[in-house]
C-alpha cells in the first residue's frame, strides 16, 4: 500500500504569516492527493483534492501543489481559526491511505 | 447541508459485537459510495471498508475482513457497520465518510465519529 509521510509533525506560526506543509507519497499517487483539516471535536473537512483543486467553500488562502510523490499545502495569511490538524490522503490506489498529520499551532 | 451522524459506539468486551449506524442527510444518498474510517488512540487514520452505491460491492481492509460487514439502506439513507469478534486493537473513533462520485476513495464529507472501546 502507498505510504504517506507528512512533515513537520507540528508547526507554530504567527497570525498573518504563511505556512507550508509537506506530504510525501511512496510510491507515486499521480495527482490523486487530498488535504483535509480536523479540529478537536469536529468532523474533518476536505480542503483540497486533485492535489490543487479547492473544495467547495474553501478560502483562496488555502492552496495545494505537487504531483507524483511530493505535495504541499500552503496556508497564507494565517488566522487563529486555522489552528488544527491537517492530513493528506491518497485515493489513487487501494487501499486509500493517510499521512499522520501536521498540527498547526497559532502563536 | 451534508450531514453524517454516527451512532452505536460504546464499551464492549473482547469477542463481543457492535453495530454502528450513520444517518445521512443533505444529499442523494444512493448516488455515492460510503466508507468507514477509524482512528485508534494516538494513531493515524485507517480506512477499513467501502460499500458501492447500491450495496452490491463491498471491500475491506485485511485487518477487519471476515469480522466486519458494511451495508446500507438507501430507503432510509443509513450506513451500517456490523463488527464481530472485537479485539482491543479495534478500539478507535469510527468515522462515516462519503466517497466521491467518480473516485470511491475521495473522502469529501465526514461525520464527527463514534467511539468504540473494546475492553474487559
Kindly describe this structure:
The complex is a heterodimer of chains A (107) and B (120). With 107 residues, chain A is mainly β. Chain A has strands at 3-7, 10-13, 19-26, 33-38, 45-49, 53-54, 62-67, 70-75, 84-90, 97-98, 102-106. Chain A contains no helices and eleven strands. In chain A, the strands form two sheets. In chain A, strands 2, 4, 5, 6, 9, 10 and 11 form a seven-stranded mixed beta sheet that branches. With 120 residues, chain B is mainly beta. In chain B, 0% of the residues lie in helices and 48% in strands. Chain B has no helices and eleven strands. In chain B, strands 2, 4, 5, 6, 9, 10 and 11 form a seven-stranded mixed beta sheet that branches. In chain B, a hairpin with a 4-residue loop joins strand 7 and strand 8. The termini of chain B are far apart. The model of chain B has no long low-confidence stretch (mean pLDDT 95).
Features:
heterodimer; A: mainly beta; 7-stranded mixed sheet; 4-stranded antiparallel sheet; globular; B: 120 residues; mainly beta
Task: Give the number of helices of chain A.
Answer: 0
Q: How many β strands of chain B by DSSP?
A: 11
Main beta sheet strand tally, sense and closure of chain A: 7 strands, mixed
* Mean pLDDT score of chain A: 96
Instruction: Please report the total strand number of chain A as a whole number.
Output: 11
In round numbers, the mean pLDDT of chain B is 95
Determine the structural class of chain A based on helices, strands and strand pairing. Answer: mainly beta
Order of helices and strands of chain B: EEEEEEEEEEE
- Taken as a percent bin, the fraction of beta residues of chain B is over 45%
Share of β-strand residues of chain A: over 45%
Radius of gyration of chain A: 13 Å
